[in-house]
Design goal:
Mean pLDDT: 85
Largest sheet: 6 strands, mixed
Distance between the termini: 109 Å
Number of strands: 18
Shape: elongated
Number of helices: 14
Structural class: alpha/beta
Low-confidence stretches: 391-399
Radius of gyration: 33 Å
Length: 539
């Protein structure tokens, strides 16, 4: 590992309104910001999830290119934050009976912790966890039970999960660029860890991050994260509301910055002296109406925050108060609105991070005292590894060609893998068609035998269909299913194939039984007929 004081750390924030990149160097306990760049995003990242991989890849490329130009170095990897609508926390309790009084040791704790991670949620994965406390027998809850004797131990955990696509899509975009991900960090935790004071984290507080696509709530008490909630509403919803009044998006963003107010009194509206806003399209809109549109949506967001806070076990234990950050924290009177709606008197707006001294280079255009930039700064401060190549001092055509070769090789490997999967899927679909066909034939044959059990031709047909059905899945069926089932996008096709195999086996057994009964029945009748024929001949 590189010594952090000699490392250039790079962090990239994938937000709903922008993709931002930052580079900094730690020296003598001070983080020196040496480069910053951003690229506006519109519809490629929604509520924290990458929806348009191609556009996101281009946005990251633009940011990385700007950073590399400023650094005069090549970026090899970057730290990435995970956040957005799909991120949520789940309370988990694991109980363990030791059978006999036992001194609790670290292996017991590790085993219980590992068990708490076994979350059976479809399409979700664990991205972080926070140990709450342990209870041994009837003793009081403790954070470290090692050395305590007891028979029963109960561990409480807060597991943070997210949709699997969250990481998958981010991985794809960086693979397209040939850039490694140094590490993933839980954005909300990194942010809370860097904007909250030690006193706030110890005494209990809630952090509210008013973002563009989402609003995130983090509750911390006794220096432990107790709850993380993501509300799928943000300042972009306010902008969309304004756009619904036939206002262009660029204008809507300016109106939000100019007229947003978290508190509006009835006296603010003067019908006799109403200010009019003239849009670029020539429309006249009353400014009070603009204010009320903004206020209505923001009030909805803050009411949702209230509901989520009331659901926690710590709503009445927030001695440290409320800390507000994010782009929405710039809204006028947001602190007063939080006090009025949430009933929390102590409200602080965090415009920057609380960290070791940070020096900003005059070459960057980063605003250090802007709540919107607290996230990117927090991601930077969480990094430890060097993210740039040593010795790179400008454009290098040979290095660029090597990178292009690496990217091309990765793309070719991905294309080859996709081709193989397409072939397997084609084979699976062909097998499904054969299964459907043989199932119908066996059902018709069974019906024919039941209508007339004496027709031997139907018996022969049944035997042939049964033999054919046994060969339909093929020797490679299980292998193909195993490969395809590893990918979410093929699970439905695999499930249909397995259901058809099961149906085919069931129909085959029914046909076997029907054919066997027909033979037995006709064999008995034949014996009786011969018996009477013999009697008649003897007479």
């Amino acid at each position: 590992m590189n010594d952090i004081k000699d490392s250039v750390i790079v962090a990239i924030e994938l937000g709903s309104s922008r993709i931002a990149g930052i580079a900094g160097k730690m020296k003598d306990g001070t983080m020196q910001i040496v480069a910053y760049a951003e690229d506006r995003t519109t519809d490629c990242i929604k509520r924290g999830i990458v929806y348009n991989i191609e556009k996101t890849t281009q946005g990251i490329r633009n940011v990385v290119t700007k950073l590399e130009t400023l650094l005069n170095k090549n970026i090899n990897c970057a730290y990435i934050g995970l956040g957005g609508q799909s991120v949520r926390s789940i309370n988990t309790i694991v109980k363990r009976n030791m059978l006999t009084p036992t001194y609790i040791n670290q292996s017991h704790i590790d085993s219980i912790t590992d068990e708490s991670h076994e979350i059976s949620l479809e399409d979700c994965e664990l991205i972080a966890y926070f140990t709450q406390d342990f209870v041994v027998d009837t003793n009081a809850a403790v954070t470290d039970p090692v050395g305590i004797m007891g028979t029963n131990i109960e561990g409480k955990f807060l597991n943070v999960v997210a949709n699997r696509r969250l990481k998958q899509n981010i991985n794809t975009t960086f693979e397209n660029l040939g850039i490694d991900i140094a590490d993933y960090g839980l954005t909300s935790f990194a942010l809370a860890n860097n904007i909250l004071t030690d006193t706030e984290k110890r005494s209990g507080c809630a952090m509210i991050d008013f973002g563009a696509g989402t609003t995130t709530i983090v509750v911390i008490k006794s220096n432990i994260v107790r709850q993380i909630v993501t509300i799928p509403l943000g300042t972009n919803n306010i902008i969309q509301d304004l756009c619904s009044e036939q206002i262009q998006q660029s204008e809507a963003e300016e109106l939000l910055a100019k007229y947003a107010n978290a508190i509006i009194e009835d006296a603010d509206y003067d019908s006799e002296n109403t200010e009019i806003y003239h849009t670029l399209d020539g429309l006249d809109i009353e400014v009070p109406m603009i204010r009320h549109i903004i206020y209505a949506r923001f009030n909805e967001i803050i009411q949702n925050v209230k509901i989520q806070l009331e659901k926690t076990d710590y709503a009445d234990q927030l001695i440290g108060g409320l800390v507000v950050t994010g782009g929405g924290a710039n809204i006028k009177n947001i602190d007063k609105s939080c006090t009025r709606v949430l009933g929390i008197d102590k409200v602080r707006i965090a415009k920057t991070v609380i960290a070791p001294m940070i020096k900003n280079s005059t070459l960057t255009n980063l605003q250090m005292d802007c709540p919107q930039n607290t996230t990117i700064l927090s991601l930077l401060l969480s990094g430890t590894e060097n993210c740039v190549s040593d010795g790179y001092s400008g454009p290098d055509i040979f290095h660029d060609k090597e990178r292009e070769k690496q990217i091309q090789a990765k793309n070719e490997a991905a294309a080859e893998q996709q081709k193989e999967e397409d072939e397997l899927l084609e084979s699976l679909e062909a097998t499904k068609s054969k299964l459907r066909e043989i199932i119908v034939k066996m059902q018709h044959c069974k019906k024919s035998i039941e209508e007339d059990t004496s027709v031997k031709r139907n018996w022969v047909t049944a035997k042939n269909l049964i033999a054919e059905a046994e060969d339909v899945p093929g020797d490679d069926f299980s292998e193909h299913v195993s490969i395809l089932s590893a990918k979410d996008k093929y699970k439905q096709a695999v499930r249909e194939a397995e259901e058809l195999v099961a149906q085919c086996d069931a129909v085959k057994l029914q046909l076997e039984e029907t054919e066997r009964d027909a033979e037995k029945q006709n064999s008995t009748l034949k014996k009786i007929s011969n018996f009477f024929n013999d009697l008649l001949n003897n007479e």
